[in-house]
């Protein structure tokens, strides 16, 4: 058996190319699976053994090198782009990409990913150089890569997702969700309108409550939940998995289907966000509520300010409005204000709101749990010690404690009297240091209701964030039509949710084919109107009395 002459081989240019390609292939396998990093070394060793066995780059019957450009350069570049997205977010959501391209990605705080973007770009460049060298010096690879290009295009999840979404144009039923959409309608209001405090905890999903996997990171939120209703089983469906999508799902009862796919303006900046639906802000504004949104990040990012201003909110405060109020102007992160600063200002605003006779609603969004490492506030270091810069559980614990401390301070000042408090995660977290533990089992969002006479309880329902909208309205004491709003169902009622009735896989499959709901969401921005039918299509509502199948339920008269 011949020995494997490592050092002499590495002096040859082809082995530098082959080693680098093997490293890239090994990383790709690990990045696209949950396999440990050590597997990449196995992939590299296997690749090099094959290269040695078949003399890749130096065939026995060598043809003269040809100065050709491989057909695979473009699909390889697309794969590198996908790998960067997968490394950044864990699960790549095409809807998020389309939406952010149109709604705006300026003033984002993702500077921590700039170094990663540079590294991925350089790796992609050198891998393309190495592959080009291999194709030019080995005629067998020149023949093989013409087949390889088809394989790379067919298996790229980005292109596969675009192809799937394109099926909405020719689908037999692109109105499945639209038929189930119920226009929110308040039938009766309570005698005394309660105030509303909604605190979105960035990426702090309920999955962290599992002590075996995550210790006491979620302990303070468990303590909060002991005072109110804790909902278990709030899943995440497609098109609700990023901040704007999560807020729109929980306030409008609909997934956020981007405007660009079927819209003539494509990636022009938006001047309205989901103008075709009535959201919670619209309803509460009509009931006389004074509404305020506060967030530490810029409201220009992802159309956040456009959404809130266009849906009934009187004031919208983001980084631009709040940063000048900081005592220490340097105490900011790449996204904006730290959560202790934001929540201190939120208390000041609630104190002002409470002096007026009109009921108020304050919606706030934190930052501490933001992937990939979080942005824990300075005040947490006094309790938890120094942050190592990578452990997301440190940031989760910080976010949970800040939320509990915030509510305790408000309660001590009597500012939560006649107030419904909502604690919710905006979406499931993206890729973080605890990623493998998170995806090891079913995941769920945080959803807790406190106050307004609600008795403490735990409610286990298979639901989605679409169901928060009607649930919050009913928890405030409003009677709403059919216990429904949008595609959501009140979890305080016995009506079946979309998830209970159809399952997440079926819902996600239908979302890839839906186009009527998309037209509804962006009504007013869509120039090519469908012809109005002679009679209104039947609206479908799903109730426990409906037969439990995956087929369309009977039409409600």
Automatic annotation (TrEMBL):
Q: Where is this region: Disordered?
A: 523-557
Transmembrane regions? 15-48, 68-85, 114-135, 147-163
Give the UniProt keywords, A-Z: Cell membrane, Membrane, Transmembrane, Transmembrane helix
**Sulfatase N-terminal domain segment(s):** 195-477
Compartment(s) where it occurs, according to its Swiss-Prot or TrEMBL record? Cell membrane
Entry keyword annotation includes Transit peptide: no
Keyword Transport tagged: no
Its placement in the membrane is given as: Multi-pass membrane protein
List the PANTHER family.
Answer: LIPOTEICHOIC ACID SYNTHASE, PHOSPHOGLYCEROL TRANSFERASE I
User: Could you tell me what this protein is called?
Assistant: Sulfatase N-terminal domain-containing protein
Q: What organism is recorded for this protein?
A: Litchfieldella qijiaojingensis
């Amino acid at each position: 058996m011949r020995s494997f002459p490592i050092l002499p081989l590495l002096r040859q240019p082809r082995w530098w190319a082959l080693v680098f390609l093997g490293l890239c292939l090994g990383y790709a396998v690990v990045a696209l699976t949950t396999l440990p990093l050590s597997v990449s070394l196995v992939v590299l060793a296997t690749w090099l053994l094959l290269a040695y066995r078949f003399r890749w780059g130096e065939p026995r019957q060598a043809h003269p090198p040809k100065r050709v450009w491989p057909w695979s350069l473009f699909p390889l570049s697309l794969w590198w782009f996908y790998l960067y997205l997968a490394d950044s977010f864990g699960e790549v959501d095409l809807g998020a990409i389309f939406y952010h391209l149109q709604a705006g990605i300026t003033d984002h705080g993702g500077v921590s990913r700039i170094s990663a973007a540079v590294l991925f770009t350089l790796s992609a460049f050198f891998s393309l150089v190495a592959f080009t060298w291999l194709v030019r010096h080995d005629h067998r690879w020149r023949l093989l890569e013409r087949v390889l290009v088809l394989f790379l295009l067919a298996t790229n999840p980005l292109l596969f997702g675009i192809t799937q979404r394109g099926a909405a144009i020719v689908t037999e039923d692109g109105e499945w969700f639209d038929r189930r959409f119920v226009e929110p309608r308040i039938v009766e209001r309570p005698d005394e309108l309660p105030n509303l405090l909604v605190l979105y905890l960035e990426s702090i999903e309920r999955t962290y409550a599992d002590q075996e996997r995550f210790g006491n990171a979620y302990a303070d939120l468990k303590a909060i939940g002991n005072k109110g209703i804790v909902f278990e089983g709030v899943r995440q469906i497609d098109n609700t998995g990023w901040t704007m999508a999560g807020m729109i799902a929980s306030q409008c009862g609909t997934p956020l289907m981007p405007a660009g796919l079927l819209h003539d303006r494509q990636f022009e900046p938006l001047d309205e966000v989901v103008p075709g639906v009535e959201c919670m802000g619209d309803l509460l504004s009509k009931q006389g509520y004074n509404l305020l949104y506060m967030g530490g990040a810029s409201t220009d990012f992802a159309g956040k300010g456009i959404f809130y201003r266009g849906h009934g909110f009187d004031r919208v405060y983001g980084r631009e409005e709040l940063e000048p109020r900081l005592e220490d102007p340097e105490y900011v992160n790449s996204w904006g204000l730290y959560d202790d600063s934001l929540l201190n200002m939120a208390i000041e605003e609630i104190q002002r709101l409470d002096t007026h006779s009109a009921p108020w609603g304050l919606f706030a969004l934190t930052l501490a749990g933001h992937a990939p490492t979080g942005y824990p506030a300075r005040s947490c270091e006094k309790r938890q010690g120094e942050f190592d810069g990578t452990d997301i559980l440190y940031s989760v614990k910080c976010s949970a404690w800040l939320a509990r401390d915030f509510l305790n301070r408000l309660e001590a000042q009597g500012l939560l009297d006649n107030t419904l408090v909502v604690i919710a995660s905006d979406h499931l977290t993206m890729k973080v240091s605890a990623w493998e533990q998170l995806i090891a089992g079913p995941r769920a969002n945080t959803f807790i209701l406190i106050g307004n006479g609600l008795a403490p309880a735990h409610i286990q329902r298979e639901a989605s964030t679409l169901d928060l909208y009607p649930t919050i309205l009913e928890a405030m004491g409003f009677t709403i039509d059919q216990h429904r709003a949008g595609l959501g169902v009140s979890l305080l009622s016995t009506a079946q949710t979309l998830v209970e009735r159809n399952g997440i896989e079926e819902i996600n499959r239908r979302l890839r084919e839906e186009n009527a709901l998309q037209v509804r969401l962006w009504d007013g921005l869509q120039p090519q109107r469908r012809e109005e039918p002679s009679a209104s299509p039947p609206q479908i509502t799903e109730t426990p009395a409906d037969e439990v199948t995956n087929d369309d339920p009977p039409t409600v008269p």
